[in-house]
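User: Structure please.
Assistant: Input sequence and predicted structure:
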Amino acid sequence: MRVLVVGSGGREHALCWALAASPLLTKLWCAPGNPGTAEVAENVAIGLLDIAALVRFARDNAVDLVLPGGEPPLVAGITDAMGLAGIACCGPSAAAARLEGSKSFTKEVCDAAGIPTALWERFDDAAAARAFVRRRGAPIVVKADGLAAGKGVVVAASIAEAEDAIAAFMEDASLGTAGASVVIEECLIGEEISLFALCDGTHAIPLGAAQDHKRVGDGDVGPNTGGMGAYSPPPALTPELEADAMARIIQPTLAEMARQGTPFRGILYAGLMLTAEGPKLIEYNVRFGDPECQVLMLRLKSDLLGALLAACDGELAAFDLRWRDAAAICVVLAARGYPGTPVSGTVIGNLAAAAAVPGVTIFHAGTTLVGGQLTATGGRVLSVCATGVDLAAARQAAYAAVDVIDWPDGFCRRDIAWRALAPAPH
């Protein structure tokens, strides 16, 4: 199999790392990739939204399977374009990718299929949105309807905070067109879990679960980010709760999408709130999470490539996945200033020594090589991951590796997995 992964972050490095171990693989490319993916794949200098160039490359190089890492190319129609060229692409069509591209579309699917979720309303007018918030009170959740790179959700503890979010999204265009419309919903109470499913249009199988850490600071304070760390498996999601979520949330979604004529194939990522009434859907994404993907790939025992092919071929009904008993954790090292304007161009040292810590694997995200030196180029720069016999051992190894890395301009949260392993390390 000749495979092309699309993207350049820590998620894509982890996917390339997992695919490189497949006995089915003969050639692996990553577009555009990063210095980490270059160690396990051949990087190709094509942007992830240059779909015409990606299709040409895939056709010219007899690519058998394309795997988009993130949502922008999926929402832009890369799966449809590859399909027209006769190339398999493990991801939803642009129509099915609306499950991530539009918060209100997902809510409409939930209502149609009877899927448990928060009560909600959609607004195109800021004054009407503010009036609704004043009627409902706080806490309340304000979401940009469109794609916002993980930064379009405000869990407002006060009416004033909700009104500020409405103003920022709808009037100040802080997220561009993504915030022109907003979804306002009740604030669900419970523990938040990321559940992943591999789907073939009709059938779905669990693809692991993780818990992400969205806020920038220890103790879950500060603004939301793309994700500062993750761990798997999350103890809060018992096998019984997972089965309940698959039966009452994932499977009805597939049935409704098929009924609408837009069957969902690929990776479906359900953000769940484990409430007193059971799991409820917060939102859908249509791809692996980042950094959740990194910990899932470290735990996956089955051949990832074989599983992706089964999803593309509609053969998941009799398919299952095996997982390692080990726990896995990911600590994101970010550049100073993130999630605002990150400091760029700073040199990172001692990475090889950090990667030599037993149990540790380091995935690159916002890095590049300048004159042979590894240099930070983004907000989230490195995913420092580790496995262990239990979560405590994995966390100890990950932070030991973090402490070896020489990067004064980087920072991380020191409490990843605190919900499962209180008290947090300091």
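The longest helix spans residues 239-259.
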